[in-house]
Amino acid sequence: MSIKVAIRHFTSYKYDKHITLSPQVIRLRPAAHSRTMIKGYSLKILPEKHFINWQQDPFGNYLARIVFPEKVNEFVIDVEVIADMVVINPFDFFVEEYAVHYPFEYDEALQKNLVPYLEVTEKGPLLMELTEKASDLLRKDSITQDFLVKLNQMLYREISYNIRMEPGIQSCEETLTLKSGSCRDTAWLFVQLLRHFGLAARFASGYLVQLRPDIKSLDGPSGPEQDFTDLHAWTEVYLPGAGWVGLDPTSGLFAGEGHIPLACTPDAQSAAPISGMAEPAETEFHFENTITRIEEKPRVTKPFSDEQWDDIMALGDRVDEEFAANGVRLTMGGEPTFVSVDNNEAPEWNSAADGEHKRRLSNILFHKLKDEYGSGALMQYGQGKWYPGEPLPRWKLACYWRKDGIALWNNDALMADLSKDYGLTAKNAKKFMRTLATELHVDSKNINPTHEDPFYFLWEETKTPVNVDPLKVDLKSSLERQKLAELLNTGLNEPVGFVVPIRWDWDKNNWQSCKWSFRREHLFLVPGNSPVGLRLPLDSVQHTDPNELEELPERDLFADVDALPEGEELIPKTGARFNNSKVIFKTALVVEVRQGKLFVFFPPTSYFEHYLFLVNAVERTAEKLKMPVLIEGYDPPSDKRVTKMMITPDPGVIEVNIHPAASWRELAHNYDILYKKAAESKLATEKFNIDGRHTGTGGGNHVTLGGQVPADSPLLRRPDILRSFITFWQHHPCLSYLFSTQFIGPTSQAPRVDEGRVETLYELEIAFQQIPEYNENEMPFWLVDRIFRHFLTDITGNTHRSEFCIDKLYSPDSSSGRLGILEFRGFDMPPHYRMSMVQFLLIRTLLAWFWKTPYNHKLVRWGTELHDRFLLPHYCYKDMVEVVDSLRNAGYGFDISWFEPFFSFRFPFLGELQVDDINIEIKMAIEPWHVLGEEMSSTGTARFVDSSLERIQVKITGLTDSRYTFLCNGLKIPLKSTGVQGEYIAGVRYRAWQPPSALHPTIGIDTPLVFDLFDTWTQKSVAACQYHVSHPGGRSYDTFPVNSYEAEARIISRFFDFGHSVNLVEPAVAQQTAGGRFVTKMNILPQYVITNEVVSPDYPYTMDLRRYKNAKNL
């Protein structure tokens, strides 16, 4: 997003007497070739009595020649430049094929034009030595750009920068002798060095603008602490095809938008900002350079001003006060997602759920959050979800804290780090298991060593190709092949781990064990790569009548419970004899060593107290043996006395299930820490498409509402709250689309209730009638789930994929689904944590309002308007204004400006065109993606998503509708008035690319889009702009942008505010006469007839270019 700045350059000379000044030449006007957009320029000279003539020198630089007819006692130059600091990618250029590699020679005609820029004027020994050193940077077929980067960096390292107030420029020998110089000295040295290599170079003088970054860099210089500007000098080299390319040896960087050229000449003396003579006199000299930001649009790196943020926090506090006064008892959490900063091309950060890099960064973040969110946390490495097509279950990192503040794990040094190798072996595992058995008072005779099945792996080895060495691990081979290679290196006869069957004895209140035996005598594991605890051959254990086995009871999360045990209470009382069971059960504790780390696999337990007993025993054992451990296996049972935070992998992202907060300030604190620690872990909250479009992570930022305990949940105690949320969201589609991911619609991850089945709203209104008003008798908790379960689903019936997910509200399936939690799934990950907080504040404020005044109204039948009008930024914004007005009328001081960063993020600005009083603005709009029918792919049957359509919004202000027509590719756009005089809106849907599998695979692409403002009075296109989907110069990007600057530059490079269509004419009108009819026709130049609009009754706000193609073919 651009920032408009005012550069003020003030220079004054005060003399002790009146003197005569010769004509003064001032070179302080931005050059015509400046890539930074100059919006305004002012030059004021004192004394006022002077003559000024503007001219251009032989090199195209602007000169102001000032003549003073009388003697003066002062000379003041006051310059102000208004510049639009839009990001420029300095590497966005082509070079001719013959100049791609250095060395090359300019062609004869070009060589003649560049003669002044090839002149070598210095050949001192130090310069020649530097040239020799620079020659070492050359390699065979060196790419020209790479060579220039190396030269630029070499000078940056060799010559230190100092501020030199003396006039003139040092010679190259002086600069190399001192190994220091001002910017102009280093720039001139670089000019001469480039010319020695046969490259045309010129000296550039101009303004340098550096703006303070919103976010500091983690692994490089962050830039200035304050906005800065000054006169500066750099070098420009001429590359065939690219033209003049700026290089700044003072910083070692290429010139970007912050380099505003004033004068570029072959010789440094000709680029002096001011030149002329003066009569000798005592002179008082003063100069000042300042920069002021005069226009800043909301941007995701700084979404709110300090004043706005104070207002946001104050409103959050006020809502909290209402919650306390009204007994709402709300807790709020979420599921933010993150992607890698550095490795964004890898499958694990785009489509795959797992990957080595993802595991490493997740572990780093896991440890950082554990230390920040509390002390005495228990870290557990558990099993996550297992989806079809994935070879293994996903992993899960979980962190647990006791709400009473007592430590679950006391000594952090005994909790191993997943990224370290402690050099432990199976012998250490055996010793640990025997000691742990003693701590648990379990018979050590029941311990079984576990082995890999040799017969299976011998058979597996026979399948290995003759020319493949099974001892060499191939990371691309199957998991079985990798496991085989690992075992052949370590030996099949070595025990893998140790297992002891245990379960809680409810009668004796201690641990009970039993003796497992096997037909093959030893315990051979099920083949695989998972932990030993997941590969136990339970079917081979002695058979037990199911009627003799005790079922594991589930704790009722709504029941009252005592405080968790602590201290000595964590050691169950035992008798003198071991508690061995005659009944064979199949829950077991496992100890194994993997990659030098000791893992303890916990069995399933019924109550959290039992899990806590095991944890305490493991820590005591680790303390005795001085062995750090990692705890894995089954999760501890859900318990309202414990807080949990998790990190899990999802396709393309990692997801953090952040623990719920009971207050607004706690929630803000938690998210502030999360965003900061994620950034420190090299994890980002944003992604960039190939075309530069800025998006969220794509994994969502789901919001959860609940209570400290399930029975406190506002959604269970007041079911009308859920009805209010559903109704309000249905009334205001902007809430579904402004915060969503790119993928919206009935087949998305969070479809609206009115997307998909036509009859849903009718049936939902009947369901709403079953909900009593808030002042009536309370309804049973289970009824909430029964009423809404079959409405809050996607079109396949999946209850999890819904805008309002009630999977964990009061599920009939298990107690783990009866948590009183409502999940808002229609939120994508915002780039800044303060934007997340505004989303949360919106939901909290609506809840406070609905708690006092339920929102109970008829549902709206939007029909096709839903995917027509509300997908355009103008109407989405108007809808959000209505939302804000509703909250303000209810007494909550929301401000529509708080949502401007979201609109800038969701509907990126593409470009604008100003023609007299008419302004034309182009913004990206939203386009739903269709899920196609089943097709065969390399992995089996698949359903592809058609993302080949895009939509933009055209907004025109100051238009006289009776005179002007607005065209897209020669087609008349049906404009809709916004109700404001002269303001019109239209959406344009177009085919951006043509994949082999699409909804309409035979329709070609529509780009570039050429927009013409056609004057019907003069029959001419008076102005135009163009929007390209891909780089107009043919640079087909095959990598993602490295950061937001490159992404912004990619978008800007695809918009031009020129390029009108030539010789457009309106359709000829037939003239009827008595003898027949005739049409006036002139065949002078080819004419392009404007096609009248094809207005769709279903989508009147959007012009679909595909329909025009059909109309032409009729």
TrEMBL record:
Question: Organism source for this protein?
Answer: Mucilaginibacter pedocola
Q: Name one Pfam family in it.
A: Bact_transglu_N
Could you tell me which PANTHER family the record lists for this protein?
BLR5614 PROTEIN-RELATED, SLL1233 PROTEIN
Q: Which residues cross the membrane?
A: none
InterPro entries under this entry?
Answer: Bac_transglu_N, DUF2126, Papain-like_cys_pep_sf, Transglutaminase-like
Pinpoint the Transglutaminase-like domain residues.
175-251
Q: What is this protein called?
A: IMP dehydrogenase
